[in-house]
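Hi support team,

I'm opening this ticket because the web form for multi-chain structure prediction keeps timing out on my end. I have pasted the exact lines I submitted so you can reproduce it. The total is 217 residues across two entries, so I didn't expect it to be a heavy job. Is there a limit I'm missing, or should I split the entries? Thanks in advance, R.K.
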Amino acid sequence: MALVNTIHGEMDDALLEKKEGSLDNETETTSWVEYWLNGELVHRSVHMELKRSVIGTPVAASLA
Amino acid sequence: MANTQAMCTSFKVDLFNAVHAFNATGVPAHTAATADTFKAALYVTTATVDATTTAYSATNEVSGTNYSAGGVTVTFGTAPTSSSTTAYITPSASIVYTNVTLSTAFNAVLIYNSTQSNKAVSVHTFGSQTITAGTFTLTMPTNDSTNALLRLA
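Hello R.K., no limit was hit. The queue was backed up. Here is the completed structure from your submission:
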């Protein structure tokens, strides 16, 4: 038995329907886990790894 | 040997460390060798945070259970460095929003300097998300010259 934090407080995961998914593209690698109770989403967590950097390009301009 | 026009790489690293002041106006007073505090705030999909953003704003920031306006502190435990001609830095720990419920879809995080008048640093976008009584974890890329979160190339 594992306890899951939900909108109704901690619940036994055996009582819940678990759904998982993932996404991998040029921006991110993301995985999520959802727990549902009688058709109601009661928990959703997301783990995301950012791939895309923010790049600045300083320029030393020519004096000529 | 030949002379080559370039922005000095050491200067790029210095920019991350606020070493140079070309003008007294608006220059932060870094009189002590103390790092500033940086924070990360999440924004809903209808917000407009981009390269023109100059400072943190609560407008269109996410809100919800256990989310504090302004977001969470970002840990920069590793000093800026450089490789070849690229200076770079990446937060040394994941950015984590624990046990939150964020029902309005969000797709951006603003990193800003809360010590220096909440001045903006960078905006990072991603696929739209919601969180329900759960945790949103942003894991950082590898801190090197090709992957670091912030790079001056």
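A quick check on our side: The beta strands of chain A are 3-6, 9-12, 17-24, 28-37, 40-50, 54-56. Let us know if the file doesn't open in your viewer.
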